[in-house]
Structures are given as C-alpha cells and as structure tokens.
Design brief:
Layout: E1 2-4, H1 10-18, E2 23-27, E3 33-38, H2 43-48, E4 55-63, E5 81-86, E6 94-101, E7 107-108, E8 119-120, H3 126-129, E9 134-138, E10 154-155, E11 158-163, E12 169-173, E13 176-180, E14 189-196
Length: 197
C-alpha cells in the first residue's frame, strides 16, 4: 500500500467536485444508493499518478453504506492499481485490504447491488478463482467488518487496514480483494477513485 497526504491542490479538488460527467445510481437490495460520477481528470492529477501507470478510469463515488468485499481487476481492461482519495472533510471509516486476490475479472462476494460489472463469485467457486483463499481461516468479528456476511468472511485474511483522511491518496494493487470499513452510524462516504494500467 502506498499513501500520499495532501494529494490534490485546492484547484484540483474544486475541479473534481464540480466537473462530473456521466452519472449512474445503483440501488442495493436494502434500498441504499451508490452514485458513480465519471470524471476526466486534469493533466496535473494524471501527472501525479504516473508512477502507477496510465489512468484508464476515474470517478467520484458516493456511498450510503460501506462497500462489501470485492476486487477491482476490471473486465474490459485489466487494472493494475486502485487509487482512492477521500473527499469528505471527516471521512467515515477507511479500507481493509486482504491477502487474497484474483486476476482477469472484477468479482464481488455479495449481490447487494444488482449490476453485472462485479461478477458474483459463489462460495463454492472461490477456492478455484481466488489465490491464497483458505477455507480454514475466517475474518474476525470486528466493527469494521460488521457489514460483511458471515459466510463471506471465510477464506480471507487481513493484509492492511487504513483509516481514510481527507485528500490523502491510498493506492493498492487492484487484484487484491478489499472492502470499505464500517463505522457506528455510518451515513455516507465520498471519494475519488482512479484505476490505472
């Protein structure tokens, strides 16, 4: 994992929070929303991200609930890095990255959003698709992972937990499974996420 505090300038932050393009809303099976706003990054931000490769997609996400276990390998173009910059002045939670990973597809363990981007990976298929998956281990029952279904904790181990800070870049390999951290009275989270190749 790589982190960089104060990643965006005030001008870049204003640009990113203002110039959204195509937007989509996904409704989870519990009624909570996920808004995704596509954005073309200014050249100054692309230059700062060059150590991670070429930007293939960037978007601002707004969550009403913490995202569950998934990876960001992507489907159309294989992503190398997932880069997240929290946009909330006082972010709720952070991200937990797991030791387990998968290539060639973006998988989700939980079908709570009805979309075909993150392919649902059934329990019986996980040991064949996920590297370092071990049916003899299980994630701990801790508040940060309280939104994860019990069966989805099987096979996973924590690589690193990072608390979000406003405007601090967090970067990790897109192949690694990860999830948002839950918090007491979680209400929303907004971040810029960039995928590179």
């Amino acid at each position: 994992m790589i982190s960089r505090p104060n990643f965006l300038t005030d001008t870049e932050l204003l640009f990113i929070e203002t110039f959204w393009e195509d937007s989509k809303t996904y409704i989870a099976n519990n009624g909570k929303k996920l808004n995704l706003h596509q954005i073309n990054l200014p050249g100054t931000v692309i230059d700062k991200l060059s150590e991670f490769g070429d930007v293939i997609k960037s978007e601002v996400y707004e969550l009403e609930q913490p995202y569950r276990i998934h990876n960001d390998t992507r489907n159309e173009v294989q992503s190398k890095w997932t880069c997240i910059v929290p946009l909330d002045l006082k972010p709720q939670g952070g991200v937990t990255v797991f030791d387990q990973y998968a290539y060639n597809f973006s998988y989700s363990l939980d079908p709570y959003y009805n979309n075909d981007y993150n392919k649902l990976l059934q329990l019986e298929d996980r040991k064949d698709k996920i590297f370092q998956y071990d049916e003899n281990v299980k994630l701990p029952d801790i508040p940060e992972l309280s939104h994860i279904r019990d069966k989805d904790k099987i096979g996973f181990t924590i690589k690193e937990k990072i608390e979000f800070e406003f405007n601090k870049l967090i970067a990790f390999p897109s192949i690694n499974f990860h999830c948002s951290n839950n918090t007491n009275n979680f209400s929303n989270k907004s971040s810029l996420v960039i995928f590179t190749k």
